[in-house]
Each structure stands twice: as structure tokens, then as C-alpha cells.
Amino acid sequence: MNLVTKTNKYYLIFFIFLFPLMVAADYFLIQYVVNKEVDDILKHESERISFNLKENETFPSSNYIFSTTPVTEDFPVSNKYRDTLIYEAYADKLMPYRMYEFTALIDAQKMKISLKHVLLDMNELIVWLFVTTTLVILLLVTGLFFINQGIYRWAWKPFFENLSKLTNYDITKKNPVNLETSNISEFKELNRIVTALMNQVKKDFQNLKEFNENISHEIQTPLAIIRNKMVLLLESQDLKEKELHWVQAVYQEANKLSKIGKSLTLISRIENQEFTRLDSVDISVIVDNIIGNMEEMIAFKNLEITVKLNPVKVKCDQILANILFTNLIKNAVQHNLEGGYIEILLNEEKFEIVNTGKISEIETEQLFKRFQRGNKETESLGLGLAINQKICEMYGFLLDYSLQSGKHKLSLYFNN
Amino acid sequence: MKILVIEDNIELLKDIKNFLEEQGNICEIATDYKSAFMKAVIFPYDILVVDITLPDGTGLDIIKEVKKENIDVGIIIISAKNAIGDKVNGLEIGADDYLTKPFYMAELNARIKALYRRKAYKGSKEIIFNEIKIRPDNHEVFINDRLMNLTKKEFDILHFFVANRNRLLTKEAIAEHLWGDHIEMADSFNFIYTHLANLRKKITKFGGRDYIKSIYSVGYKFSD
User: Labelling A129: which of A41, A315, B95, B110 has CA 20 to 30 A away?
Assistant: First the structure.
């Protein structure tokens, strides 16, 4: 739910609660005021009558008189207001009246005098109150709705623009984000904090990246030395069987480390966009060369290979294209079964490689992560597919893996 | 041949110097930009082996200076940077070859020899080892002057062996020489074994001697 809907929702809830309160308050207030007014009129009338009786000793005429009743001397009634219903013949219905009773002496006879005054029709009052209150509230709601909409559109504009800028922000890209300025202090504060945060994150990311790069290439020279010394040791020829195994193990691990370093360096170079060349690369030539280079391995494993290549030109870096397709084809050869088969298809839309092989234990998504291997016993490092994924990301190729009736199928869709 | 190795890591420098001298070369060294530049300009060398990152400058500048002075010398870059950009730059300003650290000594040696052959003999020189004669540019091998048919990989292995005779070549070094840097093949050692078996068979069939010796289980040595 977005901000404006949410605000409107709360306004609406507020008015729904306010509505009966307003009607009730108005009702009682108006009733109170009207009663008070009527009481004042009746009081005034009673005083006028009392005065006339005392001064002029005549009973004045009055429209308010309801009844005059003689009472005994000790009759206690005096100065009392009450509500009552009186049948009015002209309207043929009972109507609400306010009554005021007082006593006075008329010709030495104590009389109870009742005055009456018609009251408002309360049902009608409620209906009208309801209508007017509804009208007022509707006006308020629509007014607030439009004001809200306007605020949302104009005052929040820089906020939403910044939001879309931040959504598109990519830390690996070098271009900085220029946030929209605003004269609203909260937005100013937000901009300040977000900018500071971005700078910090960028700095950390940069440091981490440089650290990774430095590590992966600073280890290469020491590794070269370790390897050379190990070869010298192996050449010295007076090693015992046990020592030989140790030296061999060190040599192999140093090799592995060196390969890891090189692969990680390659990945970070791809991430850094250091491959900017856009050669028009004929993929079929590349694939053909790679297959040629692996011919003997394919023959060695007794693999049956079918290749269907159409010439396809793709704009990308020649070196990366070579790495990508070498990895893909190499995997199909390496993880294949003795006497299995490979099927390679290349056309304008995609490159597809289907091969027999052991069933991988890890999930497809995991497959593209670093250091993931389908089966653990092989010597491979599991960086090949991660490199492939990076290259594909860079050129917008789509890499898709599926397992179809025991056969591995890797499809690479070009971005067209 | 006379080689100048420019490298700031003393240990690595010692390894390279020893290896190259054992191959019968004269090998001089420089550990920084200044002395390297002086030596490269003043003394005649056949080959320069240049590290890109030096404490007081870059190897690329040395190459530029050497090219500016019109000095005829083969140049091989060795760099830990593994940057394709560096490689392209280096080759563009006139380097002949590029090796990424860590490289195998045998690989460096083979590259130096190939470069020297291209430079000094315009590639026409034959490599002769007893009854074996190799014509690298035609990919031809003769045993007792009889042309022997080899596959491309078999030829590469034999050429690599002859260039590094009497040295231990580990399986890893051979694999990288044959299939390049970015391939990590679990089965590659088996392929090497098969290729070598075939190669041995062919050489003995042509009346050559079997010079390939297995050293422990780590690699092979080509020697009398």
C-alpha cells in the first residue's frame, strides 16, 4: 500500500469515527440550547403574568397559557419545568411541548398556572443534522484527498525520483548517483544520510575489491618460487619415497593455489569491466578450434560427438568468448562417461551442448556459485561455471542448465 | 645466447638465472628500473625477460625505451598481473611474448628458445638432438632423416621436451604447455601418458632411442 492510499485510509477511518460523535454532539447541543431558550421564554412569560396580577390585579391574556387550576393553600407546586406530549387536533398528532408550572393568587384564590411552548420535532432535527454533517464530512474527505494527492505528487517528487535513482544504482558501476535536492528538511536529511551511506559502502567495496585483487596476484610470485624450488628438489634425485610424496603434495597444492588465484583474478577483472573490446566474434570458429584442441581427449574417452555449427557473429571480447566456450565444452568432456556422447548445436539463437555424464548432486542454482562441484572426487576447482556466469552476465547471455532423462543440457542464449 | 632478466623478486630472479645458465646461456640480472634500463641500452642482449612491476618504474617503459633506441632484441614480459590489458599493451609496444606468473621454468625456457630461433635464424633453423631433427615451423620431425608423422599434440610434446632436455618436466607444466592456462583438466595427466606412449612407440618404430624417462610419478625427463 503506498503512502497516499495509506494516509487516505486513516483519514477515512477517522471520519467514520467522527461522524456519529459529531451527530450526537450536535443533537444534544441543539436540544440544550433550544430547551434553554424555551425555558427563558416561559420564565419570562410567568414573570409577566405574576407582575400583572400583582400590579393591575388583572389576569393578562397570553398565548402560552395551557391551563389554570385552583389549588388549595398548601399546594406545593412551584416553578417546575417538564416535557410533555400534547395532542394537536390541527395536525392530528402528538407534539412535544415544554411545560412550566407556577402558582399565583387570582382573586385571592391560589391558582396553578401551566404555560406551554411547542418544541422542535427531534426526529426531523436528527435527519437534518445527519444530512448536513454527512455533507460537511464528504467535503472534508474529498478536499483532503485532493490535497493529499497534490502533496504526494509535488512535495514528494524529489523523494520518488531519488528512490528510482537508488533502485538503479549499481555499486560495480563507476557513475555516481546525483540525488534530487529538496527544500523539505526531512528529505534534505535523508539525502545527506543516503549519500554518506553510499560513499561509505562504495569505499568499503572498493577496498574489498582491491584487497581481493592484490591478494590474488601478490600470491603469484611466492607461488612461482615455491614451485620452482619444489621442482629443484625433485630433480635432486636423492629423495626418499616418503619425502618425495611430501614434496609432490606441496607442489600440487601450490599449483592448485595458483590456479585459484588466476581464476579469481579473472572473475574480478570481468566484474571490473576490464574487458571492453567488442570484437565481432564468429562463435562457430571458436567452437571449432576448441573441439579441435580437445580432439584427442574426446577420442581418449571414446566419446561420440555430433557438431552442428552455423556461423554466428556475436559482439564480445575474443578472449572471454574463448574462455567461456572452452569451459563449456571442457566440462562436457571432463564430466562425461567412458563411451558417452556429446551433442553441440550452434545457431543464431543459442549454443547448446547436451552430454551424458554423472548426475550432479547439487542444485542448478548452486552450480554457478564459486567452488561448487557436481561430484567431489574430481580435481576441478569449481570456478569454471562461476566464470561463465560472470561472462554471460556481462554480455546479457542467458545460461540455462537442465537434466533431461539422465543427460546434461546446457543452453546459452545470445541476447537477441 | 645472452639474456638479461629484469625482476625485482630476488628468489625468483635466482631461480630464473640458475635455470637459464644451466641451459648454457649467459644470464645477467637487474632488480630495478634504473639498472635494467642502463644495461639494456648499453650492452647487447639476445633476449630481455622483463617484469612489469618494478620498485621504481614499469617494465613497459623499459620496452618503450629499447624500441625507441632501435635495439634489436627479443622481449618476453613476465607479469603477476594477469591483465589481458597489460598483455595487449606489451605486445603492442613491441614485446614478443607474454608469460603470466607463476609460470613454469620449462615454459619460459621453451619460449625463450623459440623466440631466439625466430629472431636469429628467421625460424629456419632445425633443432637437432642425436638422431632427432625438428623443423618447428613446418611442424616436421625427422628420425634418422626419415619424416615421422605426428599429431599436433605429439609434436608439441616432443618439441617441448627437446627444448628442455635434461630437465624434469612435471605433468602440470606439460599440461599447461599443451592446453594453455585456463584449462583445468582432471584427465589431462592421463592424456599426457597416452600421448607419450604413442610418441615412444612411433620413435622406436623409426629406429630412434627412447629418451623419455619417467621421474618418480611427478613428471618426465628427456635425456640420453
Answer: A41
